[in-house]
Design brief:
Chain lengths: 148, 269
């Protein structure tokens, strides 16, 4: 239980073939290229020579969130973080809209995470299907969500 | 990934290694100053933007509005100062609407410093933030890594030493508004003449307690281009026409369509 201001260095020391993508059904040692449609995966490029800021930025919000919950735990007791996590999980399990159609509306999550009166780069550069990125197709996404 | 993208980092590293250098980001070079006076604060900036050793913009705007009465001057990478300022301006407006209060300069400063610290200095934005709010007039500065300073007079940018020399010599407490404007204009001019990264004109913004902020765009223009010695326009008839041929690209056909008066109002005739 630590209070972090800055995300930990998340350089992985060992990876498997499935760390960066799901295994193909017929060839479990490789990623599923047909589904992702992106071509063979270069695992070294996913691990080495990444921008020094990348890990920091992608984990920033999560780290701040965890520190806040830890502070609540120390001040108000274990019930506070449990209740807040429960509310977020309710949202996550009941909201679904495919990424191909833009992903689910962040209204409820924004209110719970106190993000409804602020703008970040993620709101401007959404990175989803509209900006030309490859997103999961509807079936894989729903399978993941439901847990098939 | 959503947000600022790191996807091309490895590709750019590879290209640099092979000898295809990255394009120079437009930097503002810059001289920016801020100065407090009795009952308010004034900030000033030059107007040159450079891309390496080329002047990219002879008259760019370096004074950005964070709130109607909070303005900031930006030095460093031009895109970074512009975008970070706009992001924080949006956040400040949303925050002030949610709190139903006038935005404060220290709020803007805290938002800026937390954002810049998160990006560890890779967002090259060096800003002088100044304004008036219900607590009074404030003059503050932020560096790209997230450190902040408070002061009665500040200067940032490549011409900051030239400007600071002028400020240190002539600053005094509780100046009048006109004295402060003259001091800031002089400090910027010192940067314009003595620093290669600064040039062209002087922009000034005055924020006084109890009044609206006033932006003087091109308050001084000491670098007007000299008039050309002769007129280099060619007189009509200089070039002789040898042959003229006109070819119609479209065939124009005129037909007359008459409308009957009884079904003139028919929509689908």
């Amino acid at each position: 239980m630590s209070l972090r201001l800055i995300p930990d260095n998340n350089q992985v020391s060992s990876i498997s073939t499935t760390t960066f993508g799901e295994a193909a059904a017929s060839a479990p040692g490789l990623q599923d290229i047909l589904k992702t449609g992106e071509g063979p995966l270069n695992l070294a490029s996913k691990v080495n020579n990444r921008h020094p800021l990348e890990g920091r930025i992608s984990n920033w919000e999560q780290t701040q969130y965890e520190t806040r919950l830890e502070t609540y735990r120390r001040v108000f007791g274990a019930g506070e973080p449990i209740k807040r996590t429960m509310e977020l999980q309710i949202i996550e399990s009941t909201d679904f809209k495919p990424s191909l159609l833009g992903g689910s509306d962040p209204l409820h999550k924004d209110i719970l995470l106190n993000r409804d009166s602020s703008v970040t780069w993620e709101d401007i550069y959404k990175g989803g299907f509209e900006s030309g990125n490859n997103v999961k197709d509807f079936h894989s996404e729903l399978e993941n969500k439901v847990g098939i | 990934m959503p947000g600022l993208n790191f996807d091309y980092y490895q590709r750019n590293q590879f290209l640099s290694a092979k000898g295809f250098g990255q394009p120079m980001a437009t930097s503002t070079g810059t001289t920016i100053v801020g100065c407090k006076f009795k009952g308010g604060v004034v900030i000033a900036a030059d107007t040159r933007a450079t891309a390496g050793s080329i002047v990219a913009d002879k008259n760019c705007e370096k004074l950005h509005r964070l709130a109607p009465k909070i303005w900031c001057a930006g030095a460093g990478t031009a895109a970074d100062t512009e975008m970070v300022t706009q992001l924080i301006a949006s956040n400040l407006e949303l925050h002030s609407l949610a709190q139903n209060r006038q935005p404060r300069v220290i709020t803007a400063l805290t938002m800026l410093k937390q954002h810049l610290f998160q990006y560890q200095g890779h967002l090259g934005a060096y800003l002088i933030v100044a304004g008036v709010d219900p607590t009074g007039a404030h003059l503050l500065s932020v560096q790209a890594h997230g450190s902040t300073d408070i002061g009665k007079y500040q200067s940032l940018g490549s011409g900051s030493l030239a400007a600071m020399a002028v400020l240190e010599t002539n600053f005094k407490e509780d100046m009048t508004k006109e004295e402060a404007i003259k001091l800031c204009a002089d400090a910027i001019q010192s940067g314009i003449w003595n620093d290669l990264g600064s040039g062209s004109n002087v922009d000034i913004c005055v924020m006084e307690v109890g009044k609206d902020a006033e932006l003087y765009r091109n308050y001084l223009t000491p670098n007007v281009r000299a008039e050309k010695a002769r007129s280099y326009k060619f007189a009509r008839g200089t070039t002789a026409v040898l042959r003229e041929s006109v070819r119609n690209i479209l065939d124009v056909e005129e037909t007359v369509i008459t409308f009957n008066s009884n079904d003139a109002m028919e929509v689908d005739a």
